[in-house]
């Protein structure tokens, strides 16, 4: 999700995400300085559909709602990582 604010905003943040086959990692960064403010990671929640990518492709092919299930799982995982980043950054402020 992105947003636009009227006027001057002094600080802008960005999140870099790496969705790997086994883990999802994220870094919250200050976009002005490049400083990493927080890092977090979880096991990729799609792993329950198969430990490797080909197993997940097979799951999608064999289940009518497979793509939707994998999409929902990774979206939940991304929300979890981003929430952890925001919480960790808030604790350090």
Q: Given the structure, what is the number of helices? A: 2
Number of strands: 3
The portion of residues assigned to helices is 25-40%
Through-space gap between termini: 23 Å
Model regions low in confidence, pLDDT < 50 over at least 5 residues: none
Radius of gyration: 16 Å
Characterize the biggest β-sheet: 3 strands, antiparallel
Please explain how this structure is put together.
This protein has helices at residues 53-62, 66-92; strands spanning 13-19, 23-30, 36-43. The protein is of the alpha+beta class. Strands 1-2-3 form a three-stranded antiparallel sheet, covered by helices on one side.
Considering the chains and any ligands shown, give keywords for the structure.
single chain, 93 residues, alpha+beta, three-stranded antiparallel β-sheet, 2 helices, 25% strand, elongated
């Amino acid at each position: 999700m992105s947003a636009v604010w009227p006027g001057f905003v002094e600080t802008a943040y960005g999140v870099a995400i790496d969705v790997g086959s086994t883990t999802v990692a994220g870094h919250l960064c200050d976009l002005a300085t490049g400083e990493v403010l927080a890092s977090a990671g979880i096991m990729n929640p799609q792993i329950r559909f198969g430990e490797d990518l080909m197993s997940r492709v097979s799951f999608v092919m064999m289940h009518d709602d497979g793509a939707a299930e994998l999409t929902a799982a990774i979206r939940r995982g991304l929300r979890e990582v981003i929430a952890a980043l925001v919480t960790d950054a808030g604790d350090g402020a």
